[in-house]
Design a protein that fits this description.
The complex is a heterodimer of chains A (460) and B (195). With 460 residues, chain A is an alpha/beta fold. Chain B has 195 residues and is of the alpha/beta class. In chain B, a hairpin with a 4-residue loop joins strand 6 and strand 7. The chains are: A alpha/beta (460), B alpha/beta (195). The interface between A and B is large, with 67 and 53 residues.
Chain lengths: 460, 195
């Protein structure tokens, strides 16, 4: 029997196995940030264990950083302390850190791929559930807890039970206005928030084959929202082309050797998956969420379903939506384009393309938060900033920002935010805030109109 | 890590599905650099309103419910990987969370902190939830050694699964770091062979 992409990478990283128990899996790259690493550094210090492979760790500050005036000292004492702690821990342990203001600083899942740190065939972890993003390159990448961060610090390994395999195939041609974000929101709306739990998911079919690397990252990023620890897409020419000549990518002859190996990674034709789902691209439309988990999604033209489940009703009550209602014409005062799901240059190009020559609605506060310093620079160099400025959008500095609202970028209580982020949980974007997840195109259109519109009627 | 022993306790019902880790501990409380104090803010935005007033409708605030066992709806712990969620639940005093399904990362985080994520059948969960809601004095016994959860008064019980390695860790208070560091030579050999 053939092997899956996941099997090939996993099996080549198993150091040892406990009888009737987990396996010791070797980790190639460990990404860290300020929020989930300090307790792990403390743990090692208390136990007098050194960091085993500091050169396989890369750190950034992203979750708890301001998106304005980054050159000034951070006002909030707790946030400042957390960032200082990260700098000190990295300095003490010889770990590369792209701190606030550094030209490579950015959201961990934007920064690592754009620097060529993320490569096919790798095992990668980070104390962040959206680490699944890096699977877009054909890597095994997944989020871990802080105890596991400490384990990787101590041994460059983790004790894990091999997950089951799942494949989601989408074939056909996407309709105009349907973006990678819509594809993954559609999949999660069909499968639910826990269908992937216990699985690693491979996305296959021509929709993903024809997708850019940035689109693939958007898809893999949200794998965790259906419960899957990770998502993957087979590496191909698009992948190799993206990685080539990036800062930490293998260079010259070394690159060619790597490509030859990467070409052996895609799942064999006779590989068998524990679970398979297939969807038709033609059925996918621009999506919106109406509830308080990412599985509660509908096509923009559909109405909110009717369900008597008490948790479902509690969710609609929180959102102040009625079962059976449409979201078209729903007034919206906040729009956020950013997060590790949708803060790469292509996302801002899509938004700028729609916004160009139009004006933001007066009632809307529209924040655009690039995923990294490099994306920020690209936005300026490509002239997109001028378009955003003219239309009344606010381009901020890079970071996780209003996706989780740890910093000051919070949506006020009771307000709706059409957001390109990944979670619409209660209070996720600020206490009492109400999140509607959507693509950058739908978000941009909402900001222009001040309400949700049927974007499919507004495209040429 | 503390050793996990047999637990007999009353329980607190939380009849909500898909409880995500943002509800267990909201992001604004993740600025601490140690593991202490998270228990004070567990389920913060369900326990208190924005002005800090107590929400008396919420089961954790209802004095008739006490105990170190939380009984929760399906798919508990989904969302963010923040281990702060496990620290918050342990800090509040929980030793066991019972649900019909747990999200992966939360489950691992709980086990790494001596908190038992105990998965039961939907049918058993529904009986357990109803029993505790109707009779808060009901005592629940969690026997990890024999992998059994019982509603004492009703003499109803159900077996549960747990990874045998994790079970040994919980019972003896071991954690994974001890094991991994003991494998250092093997890890070095693995690295050498890959170069």
């Amino acid at each position: 029997m053939g092997k899956t992409l996941f099997d090939k990478i996993w099996d080549s990283h198993v150091v040892d196995a406990i009888e009737n128990g987990p396996q010791v899996l070797y980790i190639d790259k460990h990404l860290i940030h300020e929020v989930t690493s300090p307790q792990a550094f403390n743990e090692l210090k208390e136990r007098s264990i050194p960091v085993y492979r500091p050169n396989q760790i890369v750190a950034t500050a992203d979750h708890n950083t301001p998106t304005m005036d980054q050159h000034l000292p951070i006002k909030d004492a707790l946030s400042r302390n957390q960032l200082e702690q990260l700098s000190k821990n990295c300095a003490d342990n010889d770990i590369t850190l792209y701190e606030l203001g550094h030209q490579y600083n950015g959201i961990v899942h934007v920064m690592a791929p754009e620097l060529g740190i993320t490569q096919p065939g790798m095992t990668m972890v980070c104390g962040d559930s959206h680490t699944s993003t890096h699977g877009a390159f054909g890597a095994i990448a997944f989020g871990i807890g802080t105890s596991q961060v400490a384990q990787v610090f101590a041994s460059q390994c983790l004790l894990l039970t091999k997950p089951k395999s799942l494949r989601v195939t989408v074939n056909g041609t996407l309709k105009k206005g349907v973006l990678p974000k819509d594809v993954i929101l559609y999949i999660i709306s069909k499968l639910g928030t826990n269908s992937g739990t216990g699985y690693f998911c491979e996305y296959a079919g021509d929709v993903f084959e024809n997708m850019s690397m940035e689109g693939r990252m958007t898809v893999c990023n949200m794998s965790i929202e259906m419960g899957a620890r990770g998502g993957m897409i087979a590496p191909d020419e698009t992948t190799f082309e993206y990685i080539k000549e990036r800062k930490f990518a293998p260079q010259g002859e070394n690159f060619d050797k790597k490509v030859a190996y990467w070409k052996t990674l895609p799942s064999d034709d006779d590989a068998v998956f524990d679970q398979e789902y297939t969807f038709d691209a033609a059925d996918i439309a621009p999506m919106l969420t109406y509830g308080t988990n990412p599985g509660m999604g509908i096509k923009i033209t559909e109405t909110i379903p009717i369900d008597e489940n008490p948790s479902f009703k509690k969710s609609l009550e929180y959102m102040n939506f009625e079962a059976g209602a449409s979201l078209i014409n729903q007034p919206i005062n906040y729009v956020f384009i950013g997060s590790c799901t949708n803060s790469r240059i292509e996302d801002f190009r899509v938004a700028a393309d729609y916004i160009k020559g139009k004006q933001k609605a007066k009632n809307v506060t529209a924040w655009l938060v690039p995923g990294s310093k490099q994306v920020e620079t690209q936005i300026i160099e490509e002239g997109l900033k001028a378009i955003f400025d003219e239309a009344g959008f606010e381009l901020r500095q890079p970071g996780c920002s209003a996706c989780l609202a740890m910093n000051d970028d919070k949506i006020p209580k009771g307000e709706y935010c059409v957001s390109t982020s990944n979670r619409n949980f209660e209070g996720r974007q600020g206490q009492g805030s109400r999140t509607i997840l959507a693509s950058p195109l739908v978000a941009a259109a909402t900001a222009i109109e001040g309400k949700i519109i049927d974007i499919t009627k507004h495209l040429n | 890590m503390k050793k996990f022993t047999k637990i007999i306790s009353k329980a607190i019902p939380l009849a909500v599905e898909n409880v995500d880790t943002d509800q267990i501990i909201p992001a604004r409380f993740l600025k601490a650099t140690d593991k202490k104090g998270f228990g004070d803010n567990v389920f913060r935005d369900w326990r208190f309103d924005k002005n800090g007033a107590i929400n008396t409708d919420f089961s954790l605030n209802n004095p008739i419910y006490t105990g170190s066992i939380l009984i929760a709806g399906d798919n508990f712990g989904c969302g963010s990987s923040r281990e702060h969620a496990a620290w918050a639940l342990v800090g509040y005093g929980f030793k066991v969370i019972v649900s019909s399904f747990f999200a992966d990362i939360f489950k691992g985080n709980a086990l790494n902190n001596g908190l038992l994520p105990l998965q039961v059948s939907p049918k058993f969960l529904s009986i357990l939830m109803k029993t505790v809601q109707e009779n808060p004095a009901t005592e629940i016994e969690v026997d990890l050694e024999n992998q059994k959860i019982s509603i004492k008064k009703l003499e109803i019980s159900e077996g549960f699964d747990i990874d045998p390695y994790k079970k040994t860790c919980l019972i003896n208070g071991y954690d994974d770091i001890d094991y991994l560091v003991s494998k250092k030579e093997m890890i070095e050999a693995f690295e050498a062979q890959r170069l």
